């Protein structure tokens, strides 16, 4: 099955590697920021949806081709698709379009135009279907990258795959599990290591770590008791609460409560924006995390952190003797941020 798959922009290589591993595919490739194409055998689709750490959506490609600037060229591709093979009668549909490039039509025009083709084709085959934008039975996806168009049917419905079942408590600025897993992957978390998230919020990083690593120790700390209580509830929902140590301590005091060289990986999404009163407050927390890393990381320990300002971390880490081993820019919601991995 040919799929168009999506992830957080900036994590494409992690998704390609994962697709190749799960789907045993040698054809996974990046076609745009946050967008990859892969060939996956049908019997691996369920595993992909259930096990992927970096996937946010996946659609089965049912039509593709080269278009020009006009909507008609896109509709021509849609007309070649045998929609009755994919959409049963009496179904509801919605068309979602994402578009890159200059065209004489908008994304809304594209959704409407393809939707009209689908409904007319189904009707011509004696199939009844209606548009339902809020809760459709089938989501038809249209991805236009300059003059290449891909039309697909989403495999897991409307909701993004990054939304996890264990989120019974939603932190004010919850971290996407895809980004949490990127922090862990780029930080090279290994079995039998000890992980610390000093600003864990709803516990996404420790929970994701324990879901995918059976033999680690995870420490989930936050200065907010409400956050820790919520993180514990999420861990219970995920079935991993007995494998996580919960602490309710201010970051600046945490080093005195942990043994030197006791942590192998610190993974952190420090509060920023709506979670902090000012940029200065945010920088104080980051400084405290860097100082904590210097004091509690093991000899081969790493700090994997996401923050909008690479220059600030570069300057502060150099001041205290931490070395940047890896950095990359990603899109964290609507904000461009950096994932930075540091070591002693």
From TrEMBL:
<dbReference type="InterPro" id="IPR002052">
    <property type="entry name" value="DNA_methylase_N6_adenine_CS"/>
</dbReference>
<dbReference type="InterPro" id="IPR000241">
    <property type="entry name" value="RlmKL-like_Mtase"/>
</dbReference>
<keyword id="KW-0819">tRNA processing</keyword>
<dbReference type="Pfam" id="PF02926">
    <property type="entry name" value="THUMP"/>
</dbReference>
<dbReference type="GO" id="GO:0016423">
    <property type="term" value="F:tRNA (guanine) methyltransferase activity"/>
</dbReference>
<feature type="domain" description="THUMP">
    <location>
        <begin position="43"/>
        <end position="155"/>
    </location>
</feature>
<dbReference type="GO" id="GO:0030488">
    <property type="term" value="P:tRNA methylation"/>
</dbReference>
<dbReference type="Pfam" id="PF01170">
    <property type="entry name" value="UPF0020"/>
</dbReference>
<dbReference type="InterPro" id="IPR004114">
    <property type="entry name" value="THUMP_dom"/>
</dbReference>
<dbReference type="GO" id="GO:0003723">
    <property type="term" value="F:RNA binding"/>
</dbReference>
<keyword id="KW-0489">Methyltransferase</keyword>
<dbReference type="InterPro" id="IPR029063">
    <property type="entry name" value="SAM-dependent_MTases_sf"/>
</dbReference>
<protein>
    <submittedName>
        <fullName>Methyltransferase domain-containing protein</fullName>
    </submittedName>
</protein>
<keyword id="KW-0808">Transferase</keyword>
<keyword id="KW-0694">RNA-binding</keyword>
<dbReference type="GO" id="GO:0005737">
    <property type="term" value="C:cytoplasm"/>
</dbReference>
């Amino acid at each position: 099955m040919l799929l168009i798959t999506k992830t957080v922009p900036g994590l494409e290589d992690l998704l390609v590697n994962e697709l190749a591993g799960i789907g045993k595919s040698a054809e996974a490739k990046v076609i745009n920021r946050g967008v990859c194409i892969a060939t996956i055998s049908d019997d691996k689709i369920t595993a992909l949806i259930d096990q992927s750490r970096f996937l946010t959506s996946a659609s089965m490609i049912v039509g593709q081709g080269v278009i020009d600037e006009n909507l008609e060229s896109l509709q021509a591709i849609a007309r070649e698709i045998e929609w009755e093979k994919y959409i049963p009668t009496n179904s509801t549909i919605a068309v979602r379009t994402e578009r890159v490039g200059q065209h004489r039509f908008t994304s809304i025009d594209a959704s409407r135009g393809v939707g009209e083709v689908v409904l007319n084709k189904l009707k011509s085959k004696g199939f009844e279907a209606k548009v339902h934008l809020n809760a459709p039975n089938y989501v038809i996806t249209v991805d236009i990258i300059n003059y290449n168009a891909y039309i697909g049917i989403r495999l897991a419905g409307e909701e993004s795959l990054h939304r996890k079942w264990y989120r019974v408590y939603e932190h004010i600025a919850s971290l996407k599990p895809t980004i949490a897993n990127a922090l862990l992957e780029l930080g090279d978390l290994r079995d039998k290591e000890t992980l610390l998230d000093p600003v864990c919020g709803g516990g996404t990083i420790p929970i994701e770590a324990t879901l995918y690593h059976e033999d680690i120790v995870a420490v989930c700390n936050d200065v907010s008791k409400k956050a820790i209580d919520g993180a514990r509830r999420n861990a219970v929902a995920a079935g991993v609460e007995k494998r996580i140590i919960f602490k309710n301590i201010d970051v600046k005091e945490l080093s005195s409560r942990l043994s030197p060289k006791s942590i192998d990986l610190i993974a952190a999404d420090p509060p920023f924006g709506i979670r902090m009163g000012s940029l200065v407050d945010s920088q104080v927390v980051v400084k405290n995390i860097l100082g904590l890393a210097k004091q509690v990381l093991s000899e081969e320990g790493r700090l994997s952190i996401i923050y909008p300002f690479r220059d600030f971390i570069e300057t502060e880490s150099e001041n205290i003797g931490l070395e940047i081993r890896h950095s990359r820019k990603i899109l964290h919601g609507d904000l461009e941020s950096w994932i930075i991995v540091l070591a002693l």
